[in-house]
Amino acid sequence: MGYEAMGAVHAWAARAWARGRERGQSGQGTVEYVGLILLVAVILAGVVKASGSFSDKGIADAVVKKLRAAIDGVGK
């Protein structure tokens, strides 16, 4: 009977510990996605800024137009 009680306590403690770890990492995926989106935004801003110094501004204008269209399309 003692072994059964120790096993039950051990199982309860393992479940409680696992639940505590899950709560601590519940928003981790969201934070990673936000970081990734910010990284892509910084890279795009750098590309637009760098291509603005070229004599041919077709690429910069095309990127800005596509970004504006994508942002405007989100609200609709």
Please give the structural blueprint.
Blueprint: H1 2-24, H2 28-51, H3 58-74
Summarize this structure as a short list of keywords or feature phrases.
76 residues, mainly alpha, 3 helices, rod-shaped
Please provide a written account of the structure:
The protein is an all-alpha fold and 76 residues long. The chain has one domain (2-74). It is built from three helices and no strands. The chain has helices spanning 2-24, 28-51, 58-74. It is rod-shaped and about 85 Å long. The termini are far apart.
Q: Determine the mean pLDDT.
A: 76
Helix content: over 70%
Q: Specify the overall morphology.
A: rod-shaped
Structural class: mainly alpha
Distance between the termini: 65 Å
- Strand % is under 5%
If helices are DSSP runs of H or I spanning 4 or more residues, what is the number of helices? 3
Let me know the largest β-sheet: none
**Number of E-type strands:** 0
Radius of gyration: 26 Å
- The topology string of helices and strands comes to HHH
Number of domains: 1
Are there runs of 5+ residues with pLDDT below 50, and where? Answer: none
Q: Would you summarize the structure shown here?
A:
Helices cover 84% and strands 0% of the residues. The protein has 76 residues and is mainly alpha-helical.
